Amino acid sequence: MNYISLIHNRKSVREFSDKRVSLAKVKEINRYFTKGDKRLVPGLKLELHIFSTDVREALEGAAGYNKFLVGAPAYLVLLSEEHPHAALNAGYIMEDLVLKLADLGLDSCWVTFDNSDAVKRVLGINSPLDVAAIIAFGHGKKTSKELRVNVKTMSNVDIAAKYRYMDPKRSIREIVYLDNWENTDGVIEHIGFYGDMLWDALYAASLSPSYLNRQAYGFLLHDGKVSLVKRPDSYNREHDGEVSLGIVLLHFSAVLGSHIHRLSWALGSDAAKLPLPEGHEVVATLSL
Ligand SMILES: Cc1cc2nc3c(=O)[nH]c(=O)nc-3n(C[C@H](O)[C@H](O)[C@H](O)COP(=O)(O)O)c2cc1C
Fold first, then answer.
1. Is 244 in the pocket of ligand 1 (CB under 6 A)?
2. Long-range contacts, 25-31 (Cβ 8 Å, 24+)
3. How far is CA 91 from CA 164, 182, 189, in A?
């Protein structure tokens, strides 16, 4: 897959045509998932369930911002074994599937949920694993207007039709620091030291979809390494926040992976003891 181009062109789509997703594409999604190339935590038990639009009514009320479910011809539901990094791993795997969908010419949107057991119940899933991520997908409606998210307050998320409005993202200059948190002096020169490789990977990371578009993270470049740091964010919910960080790691790794083979993230705050402001936490660290 040409990750940089897929990441550049991806956006959340919330209006779909009635066209069904072909069986060949469903099979290809299953094959790609089963191949299992992209795993942040290897060896975790996982299940991918693919549903048609028939489950839409049942899923209403159990998933979506303020219980507003994105109506779509199909849904992906990823289940995972319990693990401290299960949500991070799920974000990583599911975003790779989002990009695979894009590669197959399909549009998609992440869907939040409150309660794994409730989702399993309404979908009739009988499994000891927990629901870790949901994606709505299909063929996006060809229209000049797009449904975009307007976060007014945490309990007032407006999903409205907007014309040519893109959820804005923070730029590399606002999310990458050198040696000390919030130090931006020399960052651009330092990124340039690695040629295009680090620039492309950080740019891809900056385009990540996140829960309520919060982008609650930053990167710290230090000691020949890069650490992804979680910022405190009162709007974020625990599970969705972790999933969003897994998505950032996927975007970054997928693009860096075309320059460096065998990327190995050390997960957790013990991997790099960094002086960070209160509430900030190292999520993952990689040697460059
Ligand atoms: C974990 C997670 C849950 C999300 N849940 C929903 C949702 O329930 N409904 C929705 O419309 N968008 C949802 N989104 C999509 C985000 O709102 C979207 O990614 C963000 O606004 C940025 O827009 P973009 O994806 O077009 O770049 C979710 C995204 C993530 C990462």
1. yes
2. 25/104, 25/106, 26/50, 26/74, 28/100, 28/104, 29/76, 29/97, 29/100, 29/101, 29/104
3. 27, 26, 31
pLDDT tens digit string along 134-152?
999 999 997 665 666 666 5
Please state the pTM of the whole predicted model. Answer: 0.94
The arithmetic mean of pLDDT across residues 44-53, rounded, is 97
| Closest C-alpha to ligand 1, atom 31 | 210
Query: What's the CA-to-centroid distance between 238 and ligand 1, angstroms?
Result: 15
Instruction: Please state the domain extents for the chain.
Output: 3-138, 172-287
126 alpha carbon – ligand 1 mean position (Å) = 27
- The superfamily CATH assigns to domain 172-287 is NADH Oxidase (3.40.109.10)
Q: Does ligand 1 come within 6 angstroms of the Cβ of 69?
A: no
Dump pLDDT digits (tens) for 151-194: 656 566 666 655 445 678 999 999 999 999 999 999 999 999 99
Q: Please state which of the four CATH numbers 3.20.20.140, 3.40.50.300, 3.90.550.10, 3.40.109.10 is assigned to the domain occupying 3-138.
A: 3.40.109.10
